[in-house]
Amino acid sequence: MTGPVVARLWRPVLLVALVGVAVVVAVAVGVPSVGRLRDGLAGTGWAGPLLWAALYAGLSLTPVPVSLLAVLGGVLFGFGEGLPATLAGKFVGAAVGFALARRLGRDTVLRLVDRSGRGAERMAVVDDLVRRRGLLAVVGVRLAPVLPYSVLNLLWGLTAVRFRHYLLGTVLGVTPGTTALVAVGAFGTDPGSLPSLVSVVGLAVVGLTGAVLARRRLARSRADPPADD
């Protein structure tokens, strides 16, 4: 009996352990200061944006606020280099978080909800929705996130959404807001400048658009009948 139990539990235990480590890292490191980052990246030259992308990807697996990291990317590298480096880190972090949850957690979730009729029914509704409209669902949630970035990455991995829909939806959903945040960091030293004003307006438009799309998506998902197997 010990062997089958270990075989069933090692994946969820490993996922929980990784999440615990991420929380500890977030508490211990927090959001790095501009001074510390500049000191650490000083003299790295062309490798600086690559190191920033790797650091961003790693921190995006923790509860550290990625919006603040995006602003820091603009402060450190300006808009031209900060945007692609920040987006690369964000996409890599999203893919890794999703893969970890899909590989280590989904089977366990399915086994757990299978023991509860109500839980299994709710999971089936979610899976049906993301199978039919996974891309639009991911875009809507990314535009109007209600949970930390790292948590959403893990939760999407627990659903049945296709990876290509998840990744494309993430690219489409986070790029507008991240672009505006990096611009805020890059041009924030001159609050009255046109790029700074455009960045602030862009953030407002992205937030409003995301809220409207999320509301419509929720209303439509309630109205749509589940797909037949």
Automatic annotation (TrEMBL):
The chain crosses the membrane at residues 12-31, 51-80, 87-105, 135-155, 167-188, 194-214. It comes from the Bacteria. It is found in: Cell membrane. It holds the Pfam family VTT_dom. Residues 64-186 form the VTT domain. Keywords: Cell membrane, Membrane, Transmembrane, Transmembrane helix. It is a multi-pass membrane protein. Belongs to the TVP38/TMEM64 family. PANTHER family: GOLGI APPARATUS MEMBRANE PROTEIN TVP38-RELATED. This is TVP38/TMEM64 family membrane protein. It comes from Pseudonocardia tropica.
